[in-house]
């Protein structure tokens, strides 16, 4: 296994995806070191995940774990059984964002809102217009 820091996240993600392959998109979502279990059978699926972690000698930081939530914040979204919405703090930041005039500011703005594009009607049209502003001349 290569030990260069630049590869660490990629190698870790590959390993985690391999050991949880059968769980992914059935009752589990993973992003780097964040695991979200969504389930009607909480105890069974939680047990399965914890069992795999134990077998692979991986450990969860229980101080950072939250169990049996009706609503969870995960990857800048608030997820419940009824809906997925953008975290309100991100919406506030978007509303307070000053109008970008420089190309670097437009790129920064587009990067910030890209994660919530599925919640913005006509996002592709808006983003295309902004990308045109970044072209030379």
UniProtKB/TrEMBL annotation:
Boundaries of every Reverse transcriptase domain copy: 2-75
Keyword list, A-Z: Membrane, Transmembrane, Transmembrane helix
Classification via InterPro entries: DNA/RNA_pol_sf, Rev_trsase/Diguanyl_cyclase, RT_dom, Viral_Replic_Matur_Polypro
Name of a matching Pfam family: RVT_1
Stretches that traverse the bilayer: 15-38
Keyword match Transmembrane helix: yes
Superkingdom as given in the UniProt entry: Eukaryota
Gene3D superfamilies associated with the record: 3.30.70.270
Name of the protein this chain belongs to: Uncharacterized protein LOC113788233
Record organism: Cicer arietinum
């Amino acid at each position: 296994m290569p030990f260069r820091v630049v590869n660490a996240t990629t190698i870790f993600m590959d390993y985690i995806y391999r050991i949880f392959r059968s769980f992914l998109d059935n009752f589990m979502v993973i992003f780097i070191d964040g695991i979200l279990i969504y389930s009607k059978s909480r105890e069974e699926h939680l047990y399965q995940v914890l069992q795999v972690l134990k077998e692979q000698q991986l450990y969860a930081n229980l101080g950072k774990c939250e169990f049996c939530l009706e609503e969870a914040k995960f990857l800048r979204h608030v997820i419940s059984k009824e809906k997925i919405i953008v975290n309100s703090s991100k919406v506030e930041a978007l509303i307070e964002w000053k109008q970008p005039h420089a190309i670097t500011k437009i790129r920064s703005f587009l990067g910030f809102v890209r994660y919530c594009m599925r919640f913005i009607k006509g996002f592709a049209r808006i983003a295309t217009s902004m990308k045109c502003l970044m072209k030379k001349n």
